[in-house]
Design brief:
The complex is a heterodimer of chains A (604) and B (202). Chain A has 14 helices and 18 strands. Chain A is an alpha+beta fold and 604 residues long. Chain A is rod-shaped, with a radius of gyration of 43 Å. The two termini of chain A are 62 Å apart. Chain B folds into 2 domains: 2-136, Rossmann fold; 144-199, Arc Repressor Mutant, subunit A (Orthogonal Bundle), CATH 1.10.10. With 202 residues, chain B is of the alpha/beta class. Chain B is 50% helix and 12% strand. The chains are: A alpha+beta (604), B alpha/beta (202). Chain A binds chain B through residues 431-432, 435-440, 442-444, 447, 456-457, 460, 464, 468, 473, 475, 479, 482-483, 485-486, 489, 499-501, 503-504, 536, 538-540, 542, 544, 550, 552, 554, 556, 586, 588, 590, 592, 594-595, 597, 599, 601, and chain B through 9, 11-12, 15-16, 19, 56, 83-88, 91, 104-105, 107-108, 131, 134-135, 137-141, 143-145, 166-169, 171-172, 175-176, 179, 182-183.
């Protein structure tokens, strides 16, 4: 995120600062920005030695020590006078870490000393301190002017050579502070990464995956700035870190629009623009692939790559708020908060990169403070947005589930209704037609034909019982009680007695509920008669004052295995009907022959 | 003697008519197959000595008719003759003060029923009376399982152990206990224990 802006701004020269030629040191001053005292020389031939350079034509360098991408070697020179009678030990501190090669020379009179060779392309052992900048110790001779001459080599990459002269204590303090902040950032960053990835794995919302990769890209970039990756190499002679850097930029640029789009419909509103934007972004990927080969990476292709990435990512990132404005106008969800957060993010980058570069904000050795602060802002704000989004998705899902449940309920309703209608139809036919006809037959059969007379009687009774069971009694209030009593009576036989007991049974005037209760009881009694082998069946109908009621069925039969029961119609029918009265069903049974208890609780 | 017969089964009405005519020589029997027909012909029900009716006609509410007949002509006795042997139906007839109720397959009772009703008496067939009696049947107060639970509670055993002992689930024990409390109107375990010792321990 910062990178393109940084690169963009590196080209900007400031006219606000004026360089003094010589710095006269003050013992009390713990930290001096060397920017104001620097002399500059650009070696376009790339192979001048320190002796040759000393006699070269140095320019006063006004403004920010930033150089655009090129292959040239940059020389910086600080003339520092020590007015005291003693040798002063100081530290030249270069807070940016990712510079390829730095050679530092100390020139006092005619003596030239190479005091330091460092940079990421040099072996680790040579680095004065691992990660977070380069502190280079120098000794300033008493009553003399010493020249600190630095040779920067930074092949085809934009260079920012901010340099401070500090006391050793101050440097240690700054490094400690930076280190603390960076560790804190690492924690928050990894937390955000793991949270977004695990949220993606659990919720399967692409939003989190996009954020994960966009954030990972940002992390790559910051990591390369604070020097985290250099620790993995003895020396990065082929500038592999730049790959990390540009891959980071690519991930950011590739996933940030997708991330925004997942929160608010950006793509839909700007289809053509979106398509072209991604064409340019794919171009970035192609260049990155090319740069995977070290000879390419160390050639001018890198220069072009940086230039391309700078332009494309700058455009893409600046395009987003413009697209968001369109969404705000259309009143899309999340558009406003996204715009604010994104703006905050860009603003923080502005404060971090642009202001120091145009000299409006004093450079500081704590170069990462602002960078990391904006990372924090970004992480917290986007996490907040995503959390909100996840909550919305969760709510939607709940509603969907509710709908599904409603749908399922509808299916049960129509199934039960169909069954009910079918039964009623058959029951009525049986009763009205066959039953009545049988009565007529009985009229005609002479009593003398005793055998036929008996059969006709039995048939009439059978038809009556059958049709009784089939036709739904349209009952309410106290009639249900009578129906149930009658049913228990009908189901009682020589081998099985059905006891029925009502306690404070309410008057239920909802025919649907009474019908379901009737059918459930019937199903239970049929099961009892067919399968239980019980001698006694106890039916209790108990009401409560608050409109709740329970139906308790008990038998002393052989029980059954509820888990492995055959998926017969009977129990399923009971389950469906209990669902339809919003009741709870509890079946307590086993094959141990300890009987069966069925408890149904509901409200009317 | 005039009798009104309302039944949609013409075969059955014919047979019934034959039985009645065989017995009552001076019988004038008017047959209707629906309430609609009855109303369309502006039948004067009060002119009949007895009304015989089925209680179920296709798409018509016979009970409503019987109710209004009872209200307007309380002196005309009604004999219900139906296939139904249902408690709710019989109870409803009782509530409407309908004088007679016999089942269609008990048609041999028809003569007695008609005679009784004409004498101003009530006649409900034996089967109907039996069905009506079901109302008065009551169940046991506590089921055996509930008694077992009460006994175990009285012996200081907690719900979990009761569940284990009786091979039932903890929830079932809880529901049973709740229901026992409700039925006996006892709210505390102490009262339940007292109840147990009062009623089950000699």
């Amino acid at each position: 995120m910062k990178k393109p802006l940084a690169i963009l701004i590196l080209c900007v020269q400031s006219f606000f600062a004026f360089a003094n030629d010589t710095l006269t040191i003050d013992r009390k001053e713990a930290q001096i920005n060397l920017k104001d005292y620097s002399l500059h020389f650009e070696d376009t031939s790339h192979d001048l030695s320190i002796d040759e350079v000393l006699t070269a034509d140095w320019n006063t360098f006004s403004g920010v020590l930033a150089f655009p991408s090129n292959k040239h070697v940059q020389w910086l020179r600080y003339d520092i006078t020590n007015p005291y009678d003693e040798v002063l030990e100081r530290v030249v501190f270069i807070p940016y870490h990712h510079i390829h090669k730095i050679d530092v020379f100390l020139v006092v009179g005619s003596s030239i000393k190479n005091i330091c060779e460092t940079g990421i392309m040099r072996p680790v052992g040579n680095k004065h301190i691992k990660s977070i900048g380069y502190p280079i110790k120098i000794r300033l001779a008493a009553k003399q002017t010493s020249s600190v001459i630095m040779r920067f080599q930074h092949l085809y990459r934009p260079l920012r050579a901010t340099t401070f002269l500090m006391t050793n204590d101050k440097v240690q303090e700054v490094i400690q502070k930076n280190r603390m902040l960076i560790w804190f950032w690492r924690g928050v960053f990894l937390f955000a990464l793991s949270i977004s990835l695990s949220l993606y794995l659990f919720v399967r919302l692409k939003l989190f995956l996009y954020y994960f990769f966009a954030n990972l890209g940002f992390g790559f970039f910051i990591g390369s700035q604070i020097g985290d990756y250099f620790l993995f190499f003895e020396s990065d002679t082929t500038d592999f870190t730049t790959i990390v850097d540009i891959v980071g930029a690519f991930l950011m640029v590739f996933f940030l629009p997708l991330f925004l789009n997942a929160l608010t419909p950006v793509k839909e509103r700007n289809k053509v623009l979106w398509k072209w934007m991604y064409r340019f972004i794919y171009g970035m990927a192609a260049l990155i692939l090319l740069n995977l080969f070290p000879p390419v990476r160390l050639s001018k292709v890198m220069y072009f790559t940086h230039f391309y990435i700078m332009i494309v990512s700058g455009l893409v990132l600046l395009l987003q708020p413009i697209l968001l404005i369109k969404n705000i106008a259309k009143k899309d969800k999340n558009a406003k908060p996204l715009f604010v957060i994104y703006g905050l993010f860009v603003l923080s980058s502005f404060v971090d990169v642009i202001l120091p570069n145009i000299g409006l904000l004093e450079d500081s050795p704590n170069v990462f403070n602002n960078l990391l602060t904006s990372s924090f802002i970004e992480i917290f704000c986007f996490m907040f947005l995503m959390g909100r989004e996840a909550l919305n998705v969760y709510k939607d899902r709940t509603i969907l589930l509710e709908k599904q449940r409603g749908h399922q309920r509808g299916m049960i309703v129509s199934m039960v209704k169909g069954q009910e209608e079918e039964r009623n139809k058959i029951g009525r036919e049986l009763h009205d037609l066959i039953g009545a006809n049988m009565a007529i037959i009985k009229q005609k059969v002479k009593k003398e034909n005793l055998e036929l007379y008996k059969i006709v009687n039995q048939t009439i009774e059978a038809v009556r019982t059958l049709s009784h069971g089939l036709v739904t009694p349209m009952v309410k209030n106290d009639e249900l009680r009578d129906e149930l009593k009658e049913m228990c009576h009908l189901f009682s036989s020589d081998t099985q007695e059905v006891h029925i007991y009502f306690h404070k049974w309410p008057k239920i005037d909802n025919i649907e509920i009474t019908t379901h209760l009737y059918r459930i009881s019937q199903e239970l009694l049929q099961n009892a008669a067919k399968h239980s082998g019980a001698k006694n069946v106890f039916f209790q109908f108990i009401g409560e004052n608050n409109g709740a009621f329970s139906l308790v069925y008990e038998d002393d039969g052989k029980g059954f295995n509820y888990q492995n029961r055959k998926k017969g119609l009977g129990l399923k029918n009971i389950e469906n009907r209990v669902t339809l009265i919003n009741g709870s069903l509890q079946i307590d049974t086993s094959e141990k022959g300890k009987g069966t208890i069925v408890i149904i609780e509901a409200q009317y | 003697m005039k009798i009104l017969l309302l039944d949609d089964h013409s075969l059955f009405s014919e047979g019934l008519g034959k039985i009645l005519k065989d017995h009552f020589s001076n019988l004038a029997l008017d047959k209707f197959t629906s309430i609609k027909e009855l109303v369309q012909q502006k039948t004067d029900i009060s002119s009949y000595d007895l009304m015989i009716s089925d209680i179920e006609l296709p798409n018509e509410d016979v009970f409503e008719l019987l109710n209004s007949v009872k209200l307007t002509y309380p002196t005309t006795p009604i004999l219900v003759i139906t296939m139904h042997n249902k408690l709710s139906v019989i109870k409803k007839c009782k509530a409407l003060h309908i004088e007679g109720y016999i089942l269609k397959d008990d048609h041999d009772l028809i003569i007695i029923a008609v005679e009784q009703l004409l004498l101003g008496k009530e006649f409900y067939s034996k089967k109907a009376k039996e069905t009506l009696n079901i109302i008065n049947k009551g169940g046991k107060f506590l089921t055996p399982k509930e008694e077992q639970i009460v006994a175990l509670i009285a012996n200081g055993i907690n719900n979990k152990e009761i569940a284990k002992k009786l091979f039932i689930s903890y929830n079932t024990v809880k529901t049973h206990r709740k229901n026992i409390g409700k039925k006996l109107e006892l709210s505390t375990t102490g009262e339940l224990i007292r109840y147990y010792f009062d009623n089950y321990v000699q």
